């Protein structure tokens, strides 16, 4: 049987998803969810065809029956979506996480818009094992280590599979933090992303492994043939089943005992023990080099090294590129970027996927111009810690979402970020929510957060692009143009693999409470302490209700409604109780989610312009 559901995928055609389960009940559970899946606005397919027929694919179709027969698990991989050609397995499971059973896996023969670190796009042909699966975890401190568990599971799975089938052993090794190497060449890679919902983190893990393509580097079966000319080959179905059989065991240990219980196995499978590297610290003109020896991992998952002078080093990835982490056979020492606040080194290069095709790498925005509105995660990572760079977590959620932004801030936030309370830094003279505070109140609150007029302010939120622009606007209204929104927010920061802090230092708590308290004091007629931030009101950025009413007849300005089309048309209820739906006469509807890609990150200016023009706005 086959049916279809609305969605978008490969250029104007149909994306096929074949549903399989370890048991008939598993298959039926996944099938009921699969009919409502979506692929994303950026893709241009007319429909998704969902099939329960494992023979729906042609040619080199993935043998779901063989995979399920080899699977010995209770949690992971029991539900499978397979597609002969898909934009991105990772995007599909991420976008539809809430609709799918936890532990589901999505497999594609060909993937033409795959996910990589820092918005890299992978184009992978047939011959690779490409899959993404879901999991959940409550402890935020373990999230950075999840990719290491997945790496270890794959190396162990390949080793055990070769042994079970009587094949020559393939020594697949881990190149920190998330690559798989064979004979000194990359053969696979792993990407973990996560997002928070109340009390739990949803994790999506994507893996690409080159099984059959000998170019441009090597593949598993080519290596087997080199070891033994008439050797049988490994099949994708067997590798995937072996992976989940091993991963489920390791994940259980990791969840209950922590990564320490897996360290010995991990070190036996990685490339870096005793490796000497050169730490390059500082700007080009003032760079200092130190030779260090890698000892292992820190509890947070970074490289721990000892210098020749006995000094300890914690070495971080740069979030995207690792040409500096060369293998031992390439050089006697390795050039390693230690991204401290003073580091600003970039190593542009072209990467290739496990399947051998070229990846498209988007260049991050590097704005320091005040007329730009966003800054990239890469830019913030390179400048984090500089005394004039201040970071604010401005997360806020609709009441119906039942999420506590202050609690989530304490669980995980960008290092040194302070919490900006949108519910607290407001006009206290009205019952209307989130009205702009007076200039005096705003200046006092911002001063309490230790922000001065010469500071560069970067604002982010937990959804990616939701409440942070509101705080950006507040700064602009009061004349501070050195303010930017973090493009993609906390989700993009996580995706880039950058550090997170958990817990809340006493100083951060005091500053957040002080910012709220000083606003209340001012509206109660009390004098606040001396301010370090001065405001200059920009009336052109602020409209009152009276101005909006006047414009209905005058029509001197175009008015945009950024809510959903349903709320604009009055057919969908407002999330706030007691508020009527519908719209102001003469306004144009441009829903704000249409301004972003799936990350969500801001679309290029020309694409945004087209959306406004399509809505009938004159620019």
Automatic annotation (TrEMBL):
Domain BPL/LPL catalytic span(s) in chain numbering: 65-255
Keyword terms: Ligase
Classification via PROSITE patterns: BPL_LPL_CATALYTIC, RHODANESE_3
Record's keyword annotation contains Acetylation: no
Enzyme Commission numbers on file: 2.8.1.2
Region (Disordered): 335-372
SMART domains given in the database record: RHOD
GO molecular function, one term: 3-mercaptopyruvate sulfurtransferase activity
GO CC term, one of those recorded: cytoplasm
Residue spans of biased composition, Low complexity class: 335-348
InterPro entries: aa-tRNA-synth_II/BPL/LPL (IPR045864), Biotin_CoA_COase_ligase (IPR004408), BPL_LPL_catalytic (IPR004143), Rhodanese-like_dom (IPR001763), Rhodanese-like_dom_sf (IPR036873)
Leader sequence residues: none
SUPFAM superfamilies, per the entry: Class II aaRS and biotin synthetases, Rhodanese/Cell cycle control phosphatase
Domain Rhodanese: 385-502, 553-616
Family from the record: Belongs to the biotin--protein ligase family.
Protein name: 3-mercaptopyruvate sulfurtransferase
């Amino acid at each position: 049987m086959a049916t279809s559901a609305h969605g978008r995928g490969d250029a104007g055609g149909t994306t096929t998803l074949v549903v399989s389960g370890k048991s008939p009940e598993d298959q039926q559970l996944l099938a009921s969810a699969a009919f409502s899946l979506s692929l994303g606005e950026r893709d241009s397919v007319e429909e998704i065809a969902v099939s329960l027929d494992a023979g729906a694919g042609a040619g080199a179709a993935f043998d779901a029956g063989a995979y399920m027969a080899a699977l010995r698990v209770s949690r992971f991989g029991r539900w499978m979506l397979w597609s002969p050609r898909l934009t991105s397995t990772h995007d599909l499971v991420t976008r539809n996480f809430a609709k799918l059973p936890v532990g589901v896996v999505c497999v594609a023969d060909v993937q033409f818009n795959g996910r990589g670190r820092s918005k890299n796009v992978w184009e992978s042909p047939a011959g690779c094992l490409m899959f993404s699966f879901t999991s959940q975890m409550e402890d935020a401190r373990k999230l950075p280590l999840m990719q290491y568990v997945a790496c270890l599971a794959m190396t162990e799975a390949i080793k055990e599979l070769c042994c079970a089938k009587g094949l020559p052993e393939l020594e697949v090794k881990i190149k920190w933090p998330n690559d798989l190497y064979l004979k000194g060449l990359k053969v696979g890679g792993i990407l973990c992303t996560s997002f928070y919902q109340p009390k739990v983190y949803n994790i999506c893990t994507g893996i690409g492994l080159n099984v059959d393509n000998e170019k441009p580097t090597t593949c598993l079966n080519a290596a087997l043939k080199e070891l033994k000319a008439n050797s049988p080959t490994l099949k994708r179905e067997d590798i995937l089943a072996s992976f989940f059989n091993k991963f489920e065991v390791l994940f259980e240990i990791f969840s209950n005992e922590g990564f320490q219980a897996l360290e010995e196995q991990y070190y036996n499978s990685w490339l870096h023990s005793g490796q000497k590297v050169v730490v390059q610290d500082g700007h080009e003109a003032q760079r200092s080099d130190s030779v260090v020896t890698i000892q292992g991992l820190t509890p947070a998952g970074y490289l721990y090294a000892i210098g020749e002078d006995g000094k300890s080093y914690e070495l971080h990835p740069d979030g995207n590129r690792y040409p500096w982490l060369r293998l031992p056979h390439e050089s006697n020492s390795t050039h390693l970027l230690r991204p401290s606040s003073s580091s600003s080194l970039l190593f542009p290069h072209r990467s290739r996927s496990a399947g051998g095709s070229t990846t498209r790498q988007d260049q991050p925005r590097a704005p320091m111009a005040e007329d730009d509105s966003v800054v990239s995660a890469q830019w913030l990572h390179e400048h984090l810690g500089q005394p004039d760079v201040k970071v604010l977590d401005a997360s806020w959620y609709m009441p119906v979402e039942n999420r506590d932004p202050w609690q989530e801030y304490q669980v995980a936030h960008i290092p040194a970020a302070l919490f900006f309370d949108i519910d607290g830094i407001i006009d206290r003279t009205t019952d209307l929510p989130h009205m702009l505070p007076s200039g005096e109140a705003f200046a006092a609150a911002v001063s309490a957060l230790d922000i001065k007029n010469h500071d560069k302010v970067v604002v982010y939120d937990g959804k990616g692009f939701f409440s942070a622009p509101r705080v950006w606007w507040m700064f602009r209204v009061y004349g501070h143009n050195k303010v930017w929104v973090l493009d993609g927010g906390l989700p993009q920061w996580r995706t880039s693999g950058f550090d997170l802090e958990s817990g809340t230092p006493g100083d951060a708590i005091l500053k957040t409470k002080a910012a709220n308290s000083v606003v209340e004091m001012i509206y109660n007629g009390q004098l606040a302490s001396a301010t370090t931030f001065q405001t200059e009101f920009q009336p052109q950025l602020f409209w009152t209700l009276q101005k909006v009413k006047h414009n209905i007849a005058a029509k001197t300005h175009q008015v945009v409604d950024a809510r959903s089309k349903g709320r604009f048309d009055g057919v969908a209820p407002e999330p706030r109780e007691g508020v009527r739906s519908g719209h102001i006469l003469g306004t144009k509807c441009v829903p704000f989610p249409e301004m972003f890609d799936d990350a969500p990150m801001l679309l290029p200016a020309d694409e945004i312009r087209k959306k406004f023009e399509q809505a009938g706005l004159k620019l």
